[in-house]
Design goal:
The complex is a heterodimer of chains A (230) and B (114).
Chain A: E1 2-9, H1 12-28, E2 31-37, H2 43-54, E3 60-66, H3 71-77, E4 83-87, H4 96-102, E5 113-117, E6 134-140, H5 147-150, H6 152-157, E7 160-164, H7 176-186, E8 191-194, H8 203-219, H9 221-229
Helix pairs in contact in A: 1-4, 1-9, 2-8
Chain B: H1 3-20, E1 26-34, H2 41-51, E2 61-67, E3 70-73, E4 79-81, E5 98-102, E6 106-113
Parallel strand pairs in B: 1-2
Antiparallel strand pairs in B: 1-6, 3-4, 3-5
Helix pairs in contact in B: 1-2
The chains are: A alpha/beta (230), B alpha+beta (114).
């Protein structure tokens, strides 16, 4: 019997493909947002409202990830923007390879912002990079103020946390300050937005931030590329 | 929740490395898994037992080195090893300005082959 040194990260294959995806996105000048939340938090509603607010300024495309069905892609398709539905067929998250396989179907050169709506799940999507520039997490306030401490990784990995369904806050006993404090303890630089997809409240703060994030990414594109290649 | 896909990646990496080294049977695989990696070790071993069937790793056992969550605090300047999976503040001084150094590992360290 012989001993063989391996010292390889088990998810290395995923990381490698994620880096390839990122390179394709960077070369095409596409800013990519990996949108994650529990099922029913309002990811597709957020996309509808965001597209409504930004489609005059930016060209947007969407990749929808679901275990089954095409309802989300149909909703986004109704807005007249390019959309691709990925059905994971049971898998609890999107991985880099699933994204890689559909890249050719998108007119990336004409796209400024690409939203990738991950499978509704607060656990696994946070563990797989898919080549995104930023991860954004959506939490509907009815899910409860205990979620940051129960599902810490997603809060740690996300650049922004969007609290949705703020219009029904008066009918709940959710402590928004607790969510804010716990999320900020887990991730001191996380940017937090309070919105309602139903009323449109708070949407412009989120979309303004997103546009700024994209612009500052363009400015630092040279150094970003170095990071990807290293 | 995705331990099967991790077990499959693990099998691919180990089988390739085994053949590269000129052997055709994997006897054991040693992993380094951080406590905050999100992987349930029991579920991973169970998944690996299923996916290794009829492969060069069919007789392979899995040995896991569990790595605790550790970090260093900028407020008090000390290093710490955390009891919990996640660290919200420095366990020594309660400060928020800390860096996590270990705990997210998910690696194959080495293996025995024949």
């Amino acid at each position: 019997m012989a001993k063989v040194k391996v010292v390889t990260r088990i998810l290395e294959a995923n990381e490698r493909i994620a880096a390839e995806n990122r390179k394709v996105f960077d070369e095409a000048g596409v800013y990519v947002i990996n949108l994650m939340s529990a099922p029913g938090a309002g990811k597709t509603s957020l996309l509808e409202k965001t597209i409504e607010g930004l489609s005059k300024r930016l060209n947007i495309a969407v990749i929808e990830g679901d275990i089954a069905g095409t309802q989300d892609a149909e909703r986004i398709g109704n807005l007249g923007i390019p959309v691709i539905q990925i059905n994971t067929g049971g898998a609890c998250h999107l991985d880099a390879n699933m994204i890689n396989e559909v890249l050719e179907e998108l007119p990336l050169k004409e796209v400024d912002l690409l939203f990738i709506e991950n499978v509704g799940n607060l656990v696994c999507p946070a563990e797989f990079n898919i080549g995104e520039d930023i991860k954004v997490m959506l939490l509907s306030i009815t899910e409860g103020d205990d979620k940051p401490l129960k599902y810490p990784l997603m809060f740690q990995e996300s650049s922004a946390l969007i609290l949705n369904k703020m219009d029904i806050l008066p009918y709940t006993n959710v402590d928004i300050n607790k969510i804010r404090n716990d999320a900020s303890s887990l991730n001191p630089v996380i940017k937090i937005f309070e919105i309602s997809c139903k009323t449109g409240g708070g949407m412009s703060e989120w979309t303004d931030w997103l546009v700024k994030a994209k612009v500052s990414n363009q400015r630092s594109a040279g150094s970003e590329k170095l990071n990807t290649d290293s | 929740m995705h331990e099967v896909s991790i077990a499959l990646s693990m099998l691919d990496i180990a089988a390739e490395k085994c053949r590269e080294s000129g052997y055709n049977k994997i006897d054991s695989i040693r992993l380094k898994i951080g406590r905050a990696s999100g992987v349930m070790t029991d579920a991973l071993i169970f998944a690996f037992d299923v996916v290794k069937t009829d492969t060069i790793a069919s007789g392979a056992s899995v040995i896991i080195d569990e790595i605790p969550v550790s970090g260093s605090c900028k407020d008090c300047g000390r290093d710490f090893v955390a009891e919990d999976t996640y660290v919200l503040c420095c366990p020594r001084c309660g400060g928020m300005a800390f860096m996590i150094n270990t705990g997210r590992e998910l690696e194959i360290l080495d293996m025995e082959v024949s």
